[in-house]
Specification:
About 65% of the residues lie in helices and about 0% in strands. It has about 100 residues and is mostly helical. The chain starts with 18 loop residues before the first helix and ends with a helix.
């Protein structure tokens, strides 16, 4: 049964009542996919928060007023602030 990868039961399975089993397998697969999506979204959110925190810490060490530096739109950033660029990606953090 483990090797069987379809979600739908075959036309005839030797007369065995396996529809409930296939329904449980479908539900388990859907739940696992949803959990994986939620975990990925949570991981990406935490990574973005970490990048912003890293940018704020670096700004605190270098600038007198880091808040204004982090929230000022830069001309080479497509209308984004350094804080937004850091949240977007590691590349954005490097451009800070």
């Amino acid at each position: 049964m483990k090797r069987f990868e379809q979600d739908e039961p075959p036309e005839d399975f030797a007369g065995l009542p396996l529809e409930r089993l296939f329904l449980r397998l479908q539900t388990a697969r859907f739940d696992a996919e949803e959990r994986a999506k939620a975990e990925r979204a949570d991981r990406l959110r935490r990574e973005a928060e970490d990048r912003v925190s890293e940018a704020v810490q670096a700004a605190n060490k270098v600038f007198i007023d880091p808040g204004s530096r982090l929230d000022t739109i830069r001309p080479d950033s497509s209308g984004k602030t350094p804080r937004e660029m850091a949240a977007d990606s590691l590349v954005g953090l490097g451009r800070f």
